[in-house]
């Protein structure tokens, strides 16, 4: 393996492709600088979205300002590993290819111990030196804070200083923290954060509030509470604490496997209480709540896991 070097995502959402030749012509909006994620998604048919999986085109996605490890280049593309997305595929992080124009050499900028985390579904970012140039950031994008001025938060980005509206972010004194107050039940808070995305169309490989896949939805709703889990459902199903179905609580993860629960894990949802599941189902659907009894995947339920820790009395 080539020596790894650190780079940073320089678009709102970078899609990680299986190979440089994986994208189709219709995927060009997602490959640009800036990436036009909303336009890309709105132009795709259900068959186009299904082909992202069936054609083994997309691996995952990464948000603006996220660090990656670059392993090599080919024809304007960079082979990357995403350290914050744990996977059995590669110990260095989730692997795949990203257009080089969507990455920049890492620039740490001024030292800071304060972070702005996007807590709205989308947050407009504008640049200090180019006010008319900007784009929307996804939920849970995290950027270091340079200064807070009135209703604006000035953050350090790969492109320099930029502005976020204070109402769209939460300020933390550490990089990984819950966006909710610590007094609440973390499982209920996981569900509450997920409910805001009801009706959001599914996206294979999706890891942003422009569209999630099933494991990306679980990953990010737990991440909103400062809980880091593996990227894929099959890996998520092997960690955390085992929970019997009779003892399920909101925020627990439900896993489903082929061959009526005996085969390969292929889906994950979040237990929402009262025998209901909150999940991002498939390329034909949107984030939804379903009754577990009688649901089409009920007989495939194979295991449940709890990653959150009950609050001490």
Automatic annotation (TrEMBL):
<comment type="similarity">
    <text>Belongs to the peptidase C40 family.</text>
</comment>
<dbReference type="Pfam" id="PF00877">
    <property type="entry name" value="NLPC_P60"/>
</dbReference>
<dbReference type="InterPro" id="IPR051202">
    <property type="entry name" value="Peptidase_C40"/>
</dbReference>
<keyword id="KW-0645">Protease</keyword>
<protein>
    <submittedName>
        <fullName>Peptidase</fullName>
    </submittedName>
</protein>
<keyword id="KW-0788">Thiol protease</keyword>
<dbReference type="InterPro" id="IPR000064">
    <property type="entry name" value="NLP_P60_dom"/>
</dbReference>
<dbReference type="GO" id="GO:0006508">
    <property type="term" value="P:proteolysis"/>
</dbReference>
<dbReference type="GO" id="GO:0008234">
    <property type="term" value="F:cysteine-type peptidase activity"/>
</dbReference>
<dbReference type="Pfam" id="PF23795">
    <property type="entry name" value="SH3_YKFC_2nd"/>
</dbReference>
<keyword id="KW-0378">Hydrolase</keyword>
<dbReference type="InterPro" id="IPR038765">
    <property type="entry name" value="Papain-like_cys_pep_sf"/>
</dbReference>
<dbReference type="InterPro" id="IPR057812">
    <property type="entry name" value="SH3_YKFC_2nd"/>
</dbReference>
<feature type="domain" description="NlpC/P60">
    <location>
        <begin position="184"/>
        <end position="313"/>
    </location>
</feature>
